[in-house]
Amino acid sequence: xxxxxxxxxxxxxxxxxxxxxxxxxxxxxxxxxxxxxxxxxxxxxxxxxxxxxxxxxxxxxxxxxxxxxxxxxxxxxxxxxxxxxxxxxxxxxxxxxxxxxxxxxxxxxxxxxxxxxxxxxxxxxxxxxxxxxxxxxxxxxxxxxxxxxxxxxxxxxxxxxxxxxxxxxxxxxxxxxxxxxxxxxxxxxxxxxxxxxxxxxxxxxxxxxxxxxxxxxxxxxxxxxxxxxxxxxxxxxxxxxxxxxxxxxx
Length: 250
Hints:
By secondary structure, the protein is an all-alpha fold. It has helices at 2-9, 20-48, 61-75, 87-98, 103-115, 118-125, 129-144, 147-156, 164-176, 178-211, 215-249, and strands at residues 77-78, 84-85. Strands 1-2 form a two-stranded antiparallel sheet.
């Protein structure tokens, strides 16, 4: 899988991100990945713990602890003012501050809440194809009900994939426009502190618990992870094309 991580960390989208307008486009695509990450997280919690009434012990207590610990941090973290918010809500705050258009993701979520149909929500919100394919893959894994595959793409396909180059770009924008990107800079710092450190260790242990010593499960998990990384590359291709198109029009 090394070649995929290398591609993600040196990908061409970062070479065309120079200013606030480029960041806005990036966020309008990436927010869907933040949202479906939360959905993947809750699928794991539903599969690994008892989330219905009456309650009964389910699975390993160690695994229950690991997923519940991650859920607490992702679903009820704190913003820069100490207010409890999910990472998705932190991201929306950052989009509002920098002027990125949130109409698409908000329409998508609202339609999905009403009818529960991804295709309809994609259509009505006008979700870009690259984003739609990324979310579709995640929900295919969720729909498999295979917790070890969900854990694998959560652990290896989603965490720790933002390279230092991207942080440098945000820091440069922040120097000139702190009032527009301070929330996003905070979000990235929380991603490093919580997701990239503590949660990645918990997720790795969770995946190891679920796959155990079964080689077939590890093989299936590796194949799903490679597919997940490929979908991430295709998503970044979509962002790259959108940014380049904007620059041509400008």
